[in-house]
Amino acid sequence: MNHQTTKSRRSASRPGKLRTTESGSVSNAKQAQNQKKAKGKWLAYSALASVPLVLVLGNSMLVPILPDMERELGISSFQASLVITLFSVAAGLIIPVSGYLSDRYSRKAVILPSLALYGLAGIAAGFAAVMHHYGFLIASRALQGIGAAGTSSIAMALVGDMYKDGNESEALGIIEASNGAGKVVSPVIGSLLALIIWYAPLFAFPLFCAASFAAMLWLIKEPPKDETQPSLPIKQYVKDIFKVFREKGRWLLAAYLSGSLGLFILFGVLFHLSNLLEDPPYKIDGVAKGAILAIPLLFLVITAYVTGRRIKNNGILMRALMIIGLAVMSGALAAAAFLHQNLYVLIGFAALSSVGTGLLLPCLNTLITGSVERQQRGMVTSLYNSLRFLGVAFGPPLFGWLAKNSDTLLYGVVSALSLGALLLIIFLVHPSKQAGDAS
Fold first, then answer.
1. pTM for this prediction
2. I need a surface site. Which of 70, 291, 382, 390 has the fewest CB within 10 A?
3. Is residue 345 predicted with pLDDT exceeding 90?
4. Considering the chain, what percentage of its residues have pLDDT values greater than 90?
5. Average pLDDT over residues 179-199
6. Lowest mean pLDDT segment, chosen from 195-199, 271-275, 299-303, 413-417
7. Percentage of the chain with pLDDT > 70?
8. Which domains does the chain have, with CATH numbers?
């Protein structure tokens, strides 16, 4: 009797154990699936972030070798500057064309050939340097600019296609952080490569392009186009773009100008700091100077990453952070107008201004990317990036011109510009509670 009872109890206990085992197996399988999904998400983020990183490396990595280029090729400083300028001008002019092509066909159909052209033209530029052929060099750099036009802005549009429900802000924050990180490391990488031979950065750059090309090709699965919405004739497409700006132009233009101003100030401040560090009594140059200039950029990278992860599609939070960011920029620059005599204090204010930029840009990126449907997203983000290019291009020369008069005047003017952008955001940019969800 006792034996039968014990046996019965054992039998009765087995289903429970089985259920526990099955439940554990389901839980483990679900956990493994979540881990795989998270890994895939971060691999995709890494691939997308590689595109703006390559864009930055293609220009900033060459800045340290410009003096060597002047000496080796026997050219003037103006001719050397054209190596940077022609790249930026070509990219700025072609970016809207790339945006249109990505809307008509697909994002990867523009990004992949652009990366290929970017890298191949980089090899051509390297051989031009070896042959001491300046004309071939600047022609190759202009081709690189055409390739660059189809990279970062189209990657931003692709993020808008791939992610919804607030996830796009995280991806865009990482893209902005990658952009900033590229600005941190590129001068250092360029300086180190130049220790081998002065034109080594020209040949190294195509390797970064190849890595980004492979990552985009294998790790990014682009959402298919909606076949119920065929590609529009160009006339209708242009009408639709004008319609977007008629309906949303006031806040879009305010956002465009604010984003461009943020980068104008960032690069202008860095250019001015770079000159101060090289002049007496500091006389800091090379890698050491790059490390000091990396401090404000590091603040930008960290702030942009955290902001992108936090904002999701919360329009109220985005507006608040944009206002705070521009207020911080304006206040830091206004303080620098009166306390710029101490270099270390000035670096602190530059870092604080970069925090403001890091709060501003991911919010703008998310709002602009999500403001329109997929059919117009490439053009809208491309026009935004064209203005960002102009901000980067005009920051250093205008800061240099203002600094010739007075540092107080310089920082006072850019503080007033930041205040103007703040007023634009306050009065013209009013995102909905759930922002950035256009399909």
1. 0.83
2. 291
3. yes
4. 56
5. 86
6. 271-275
7. 90
8. 41-221+229-428 (1.20.1250.20)
**Backbone Cα Rg of the chain:** 25
